[in-house]
Specification:
The chain is an all-alpha fold. It contains 13 helices and no strands. The protein is globular, with a radius of gyration of 19 Å. The structure holds heme C (HEC) (2 copies).
Amino acid sequence: MKRALLVLTIALLQTTSAAAQSLDFQTYKTQVEPIFLRMRPNNGPGGSCFMCHTKVVSRLRLQPVSGDKPAWTEEQSRLNFEAVTQLVVPGDPLKSKLLLHPLAPEAGGDPIHGGGKHWQSQADPEWQTLAAWVRTGSATTANSAAAATLDFEVFRTRIQPIFTTKREGLARCSICHSQTTNFRLQKLPPGRTAWNDEESRRNFDAVQRLVVSGDPLASRLLMMPLAAEAGGDPFHPGGKHWVSRDDPEWQALAAWVRGQAR
Ligand code: HEC
Ligand code: HEC
């Protein structure tokens, strides 16, 4: 039993390379990457995928490009390929975040994408191109589910207090983030300074999509409030709460995301 669990854990850790191996790079290079470069003038928050995804903190980390006719070199495309395949479950477009995140919720997509909804239906030719590419891969192991490895008790006792801590010149995370939409914590009733178990469960669910299990540097929860000079996101409306990755709070978050905190 223990052994089976160990094998499963290793299988989950290896999914990235397994996914990359089973998907076709040439199809990716010639058909998928042009989608990331295509200009989308009429698209709500606007811009092309690459304009945000060479900068924002997420697993879709594309290599920098510039110029009137931006294009990636073969080597850059290989690096992009590594990042993009992490967001794909080979053989299964409807389990692939790459296809679900920019797809309208009414068409089966995720509820929210920071960059807006680029496809209104699965019949969209771009969506179809991506789906065809994903189907070139054979189902390997399941994609790693963040919920499977993140520790709830550590979250409840060590991570949540970070959200209610007052820092010099800044508001507490919990004040703003009980009202925002993308990252939403439960409201604390007046007079209470900590969340009960049920509220903590909900917070835990809300935080799942902002962390990438095992990868603090791809986790928005850690990178949004981190100073840009320390590798953080260029901008966070709530200010920069940590000037360096050595900050004990940042370290506690990183240990939790890596599954090291016990
Ligand atoms: C205006 C900026 C912007 C544009 C344009 C944009 N995105 Fe995003 N995208 C974001 C932000 C911010 C996030 C992180 C927050 C979230 O998950 O919604 C994100 C997250 C994602 C994720 C999830 C990454 C992860 O780590 O789980 C995927 C997949 C994605 N975008 C795909 C795309 C694709 C494909 C396009 C082009 C069709 C695109 N995005 C265009 C801003 C943008
Ligand atoms: C003064 C208000 C304010 C404070 C304080 C604040 N934030 Fe934010 N933060 C925002 C706003 C506004 C956004 C963008 C809208 C949203 O997330 O819904 C944002 C975005 C984020 C995002 C990205 C959500 C996404 O999916 O794009 C994360 C993660 C985040 N904040 C974490 C934190 C953490 C952790 C703290 C405390 C260390 C904090 N914030 C403190 C206002 C604040």
